[in-house]
Amino acid sequence: MRLKLDNFTLALLISVTLASLLPATGAMARILDTTTTWVIVLLFFLHGSKLSRQAIWAGIGHWRLHLAVVATTFAVFPLLGWALQPLWSWLLPAPLVQGMLFLCALPATVQSAITLTSVARGNIAAAVCSASASTLLGIVFTPLLVGLLLTQGTSHTGGNPLDAVARIAMQLLLPFAVGHLLRPWSSGVLQRLGSHVRIVDQGSILLVVYTAFSSAVVAGLWQQMPLPAMAVLFALCALLLATMMLWCVWLSRRLGMNSADEATVLFCGAQKSLVSGIPMAKVLFSASVVGPMVLPVLLFHPMQIMVSSLIAARYGARASIPTDQSLPPQPAQTPPSHDR
Q1: Other CB atoms closer than 10 Å to residue 200's CB: what's the count?
Q2: How far from chain centre, in Å, is Cα 159?
Q3: Domain ranges of the chain
Q4: Distance (Å, whole) CA 158 – CA 34
Q5: Which of 60, 72, 149, 264 is a plausible cystine mate for 122, CB 3.0–4.6 Å?
Q6: H-helix segments, the chain
Q7: pTM of model > 0.70
Q8: How crowded is residue 255: how many other Cβ atoms within 10 Å of its Cβ?
Q9: With b meaning 16 or more CB within 10 Å and e meaning fewer, what string describes 71-97?
Q10: Any idea which architecture 2-188+195-317 has in CATH?
């Protein structure tokens, strides 16, 4: 799992580098912009097709777990971002502050959250249900939170957050719902395609990242983002991730959850979705500001995967130790001997 994730992170870095050195301009930029719109539609159609209805019903009963994840994703994360905004404004350029707030408003991951929960031997059915619900709720909550958190109207093109909800619903929710409704017919095709579906998933994100950064580079992204600011951004993303992971563990134990449910809350609640974030940024913001808006999530994504992979392995190792092996073996009892 780590090898695949590392490959995708490397591909993201290559996409950003390529966009920085050879950005798409003119007619090519317009073609890519239209192409990425349809690629995003395909991406969410595939996500809907892969979502198992049986897994949804199996995990839907864990209401306390789902409430903890939703509250963390769409309440605690944004409130923390709002509270830290003065510190971020002091340390970062304004576009990166906006990007950090956008990061805090995003839904949770789906695929990586489920994979990490599986590695940690957590509640996989609940993870499928919770992560998928987070994506769907994000279609409504993320634009509304963006409208509340991002006060500088120069970078936010939505005007009315409800209009942004409608646009995101058309580009993300509609193909997701159609894909899920067609699952009885499409699931067999997806199973036959196997790993090729992952190539389409990741290739779609790479194309959107390249297109977004091309527009940002043409608008002077790297002249506005000095190297010290990028180093500070990395440190702040690490601090945000650590804070939210500690919060998820504390909340789970406060609610009396077992280790499996705790791992599920941790990997569904403390992560933010790159797959949803990039398309949402493309819908919510003008092309010239999408690059700096998604820089924080591009840093946060590989960071959360690498840290979570290590933690998931520790959860899994701890869960694999049988209870009766947690104590050292006792010597066999033998009858006392009177021989000296």
Answers
A1: 13
A2: 25
A3: 2-188+195-317
A4: 19
A5: 264
A6: 2-21, 26-50, 53-59, 63-71, 77-91, 94-105, 111-119, 124-149, 161-168, 174-181, 183-193, 195-218, 221-224, 227-254, 259-269, 274-284, 287-319
A7: yes
A8: 14
A9: ebbbebbbebbeebbeebeebbbebbb
A10: Up-down Bundle (1.20)
